[in-house]
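Help! Submission page says 'invalid entity' but I think these are all valid:
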Amino acid sequence: MKLFLFFLIFFTLFNLRAMGLDLTITQGTVKPTPIAITDFYSKNNELYKIGKNISKVISDNLERSGLFLPVDRDAFIQSNEDLSKQIRFEDWKIIKSQYLISGGIQKNSNDQIIVCYKLFDIFSQKLMGNKERCFSPANEKSWRRIAHYLSDIIFENITGESGYFDSRIVYVSETGSKKNKQKRLAIMDQDQANHKFLTDGSYLVLTPRFSPNSQKITYMSYIDRNNPRVFIFDLETGQQEIVGEFPGMTFAPRFSPDGKKIVMSYADPEIGNSEIYVMELSTRISKRITNNSAIDVSASFSPDGSNIVFNSDRSGRRHLYITNLDGKNTKRISREQGSYYTPVWSPRGDFIAFTKQQEGQFYIGVMETDGSNERMISKAFHVEGPTWSPNGRYLMYFKEERTAEDGSGGGSSLFSIDLTGDNERPIITPLGGSDPAWSPLLH
Amino acid sequence: MKAKKIKPKPVSKPLSDTLELNKEIALEVKQKPKSLVNNKEIALEVKQKPKFLVNNKEIALEVKQKPKSLVNNKEIALEVKKKQESEIEFNIASLLKDIRNDQINPKTDMQKEAEEEKVKKTNTSKDKVSEESTSLSISEIDLVLQQLSRCFIAPLGSEIEKMTFVKISAKILQNRRVIQNSIRIVDTNIDISNPFYGPITRSSVNTFLNPDCIPLKLPEEKYDLWKNITLTFDYSIMKGN
């Protein structure tokens, strides 16, 4: 027995020593990931300028996401030329960069530009993806698109989440006093570059929305002041057309995920209220989805196109409802106090964003598709009109200032925020802005 | 309800930028073949020494693998040097000194007794140390735990489910540095098909490789107790700093 006990104690101690130290980590550092982004190297001065611009756009994109902290270039130890030959990991560890993006830009025999990049994990001293990747932009002017595209790849490689940088924003540009506002359609890249006005401001426009291929925009226009209508603007041809002649007003349009249909509200003058309709664009035949004495508006498709979410005052207050495309299985999903507006289904299908008004305050909020886990992510005197980034992790919306007694103020502007409610940032536009809509990814 | 179809009317000129961009999508992004000639994406394997065509001449880009850092080389060289020096000192200087002392000052009985007493005392204190070194104290564990927590940078942007955990192990050298290729993911409940598998496990592995965790704050004399370390990242109770 004594011998048995001796062996038991001996082996227990021996095993403890062999097992080593076992620790549980329950705390971590939450901070944007430090990332070094070098200028894309070229021996040719002209190309080097483009390379510098590409790295600047990538750096700005990643910084704006709130998940990355680009390391100050003045801290870089290894030169660009040196890096193009061989990386010295220790030089990047010293400046506490966790990742490094380096690249090169050159012309091939056909005078085409080739942009190559490498993404390094500095801590583990590895080239991520085990290879350098190269792309060829269509021409020198399209370096910005390449920069956005590379940003998307880098973002996805590091976070596991698809990117959203190669995308555009259409919105309503506003100028003038509250009583006499000029509203124009405007479009820009998500980083506010390449800004263009699409309409001249001679008539009001509202609620622009992208088609799934980002080539068309549907919106409501007051081109005929007495008879506002839903239009489609073709970005490639510059043509715009009315989706159809109706006796009453059509408004709040959105494309279906396959781009073949449009869901919109129609105020039938005979019935006297608004209902949700889905129009087949190839035949222009519309089908009524809701049939209720209440006002049903602001419909948005689910990503699979099988359901729509909309708002209705059928319960006495404005609430959010989900229904099938045949109008069956309609159920209310919002449960809290207050009035709900402008619901938008996330492109990932996991959340619905909305505007909420309660006790004199406006909020931008999100809830799961069954109405659970409602939470507010932005609050102001007037915030409205959320739109999702293509990866479903950021929102853009507009804020309106309070108008002073003398009529001044009251301007509106665009903001973006991440799904957690952090990283709220103003979107800089030449004039005021409202009703933003984020395009799907362009690639 | 059938709406009357209306002929489209051009309202404004198309955007030149837009058109260029549209063309570009088809050219560069949608397809990913591996050819330079077709003006499409080129996948260059670093291991295979990528080649570029510049002015019809083939240029091979030298990409050396497993770069050795200068700093590391220096460190290694220094360590080797120190060891050699100390060995020489022991072999020659100390030995000669002992022989000389023995020859010049032969020890008395009293001195011998004192030395024996000293040896006894040293043995007793050695026993005490070996008892202490069978376990790490709470403060020693706390110190390294704090250091590792600071080195663990949470994978921002990743979706982490509540009960997620990642367990990794590593072998540690006596100089308290992790052997990089010994780091293993021992266990995790994240499915490998989860798009966040890579970022989450990478953040765990990188905790060991974070420069702020080299060397680890561990008591050198208790090497046997920490030569193998297992870290469990428990996201169910994770807090951020």
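Support: the input was valid. A stray whitespace character was the problem, and the output above is from the cleaned input. Residues 68 and 74 of chain B are 11 Å apart (CA to CA).
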